[in-house]
Amino acid sequence: MKPSQLKRLLSEEKIMLTNKTIVLGITGSIAAYKAADIASKLTQAGARVEVVMTESATKFIAPLTLSSITGRPVITDMFEPTSEYSLGHIALAEVADVVVIAPATANTMAKIAAGIADNMLTCVVLATKAPVILAPSMNDNMFQNSVTQDNLAKSKARGFNIVEPAYGRLASGKTGRGRLAEIEIIIGTIKQVLGRKEDLAGKHIVVTAGGTQEPIDPVRHIGNRSSGKMGYAVAEAARDRGAAVTLITAPASLSEPAGIAVVPVQTARQMKDAVARAAAKADALIMAAAVADYQPKSAVKSKIKKEAPTLTLELVRTPDILTEVTGNFLKVGFAAESEDIVANARRKLEKKNLDLIVANDITSAESGFGVDTNKVTIIDRNGKVENLPLLTKREVADKILDKVAGLLAKKARR
């Protein structure tokens, strides 16, 4: 695929934040410069970003930076006569779909916990009915202080969403817990919170991802080329549509997504056990993982030395997760095929009694392992076949979830 084609596909990916108004509060933390990246990513995702800065925040980053990124005036003074929200914190509070304070200092969190509204940002928080997300950033001693912890507990009890700070090197040169969480985690939390009103709200979706690894000895395993990208895309899309998501993942070099319960596994047996536990209370199981079909009959406890000219392994079948794990939930399988795509997928759907199967040609450079795009065919239990064009994996995830949401709604009406 040409770079221009991939760029076009990525630009056409479904944007979950379009038409959302996000109030981004910035307070006086050294991490305030990171708010520019948050504002940029939210704006690129289609959101209208209204930035409100405390006076202290302006000492760390210029309002001009934020207004240049968002294309919107930055509010720094409750009584600023040029602001369309002058004397109107109520108006700003009412248009917000979500209020995010990142970074949130101990001082601002203390004011919020006490109900103090002495600047535009705290007034908006007190006046809004939109969900509020706090992403603390401060010295580790300040964060661990019992006063700060009490204030956080009060905010949590009132329904505020807390993005816990990360552990790492701090501005003081010390190492501790107090760093602003990664930008991807903050944005993932925003999507999760906004998704609570979407079509999968109240549903529990279990997703598997990655390629299982079956040990030969302590350093070697039988595996496959799955990157886990398709499964992670499905999990994130389900989260953004309001579902409670459990992601059961074999080893993958992907960042753990925010707002999702992640269960790491290695082998097919471990994945089956994890799926059985999670699916007991699930509405749907989406098996995007590439589960190894065979495993060594027994793993060697010590490293096999490279001495003999050949090595013979006796392999046995791994558990068939989709067949063996049963329950009152929708089952969605994947079929990675190299020939007779539709025919082989149909047989798998019938054999495993699936509601849907997603088939793709792994021999295609644009639709195989490790790439960001996929060209799939979706088949339902009634035999209906839908051939999708080449899409990003996130777009494919949403197409799958469109069908899952429809089937769950139909099931609920029975």
Describe this structure in words.
With 414 residues, this protein is an alpha/beta fold. The protein has 2 domains: 16-194, Rossmann fold; 199-413, CoaB-like (Rossmann fold). Helices cover 34% and strands 23% of the residues. The chain has 14 helices and 21 strands. It has helices at residues 3-11, 35-44, 63-70, 89-95, 106-114, 120-127, 140-144, 146-157, 183-194, 229-240, 268-279, 321-324, 341-351, 393-413, and strands at 21-26, 48-53, 98-104, 132-136, 161-162, 166-169, 175-179, 204-209, 214-217, 220-222, 244-249, 261-264, 284-287, 294-296, 315-317, 330-337, 356-361, 373-374, 376-380, 385-387, 391-392. The chain has an 8-stranded mixed beta sheet with strand order 12-11-8-13-16-17-19-20, with helices on both faces. Strand 1, helix 2 and strand 2 form a beta-alpha-beta unit.
